[in-house]
Amino acid sequence: xxEHWKNNDKADLQKSLxxxxxxxxQNNGTEPPFRNEFWDHEEEGIYVDIVSGKPxxxxxxxxxxxxxxxxxxxxxxxxxxxxxxxxxxxxxxxEVRSKTADSHLGHVFDDGPGPNGLRYxxxxxxxxxxxxxxxxxxxxxxYEKLFS
Length: 148
Description:
Elements: H1 10-16, H2 19-27, E1 45-49, E2 55-58, E3 62-63, E4 71-72, E5 81-86, E6 93-98, E7 104-109, E8 119-122, E9 127-131
Antiparallel strand pairs: 1-2, 1-9, 3-4, 4-8, 5-6, 6-7, 7-8
């Protein structure tokens, strides 16, 4: 539940996350396209930061960008997603990180649909999915309104 976030140290995170989740969130890694948990996931619900549990994205804003990773047009709350310049791999991109846990999530690009034209390309390994029917039970009742 989002209310119980504490700043885990690296040793605790290595125990609680899978190797891929740790590599992506803590070492700015990237999982393989089309071979990750949520790239083609269509169930209604919200996606939260795997480290902090903070809500990040809604299935209402998810779409198939054809890139092999989950793509969203916008975050649930702008304040929980921060953007940083990324000049790795000989490119200039905009990295997306979670504010609370400082987890690497993925990148945002300006080739998306919708009024803002953004595509948040996010690693599944950085996310935990909370189904619409489980929101209240798991402490996210205030997000039920997204699906009414």
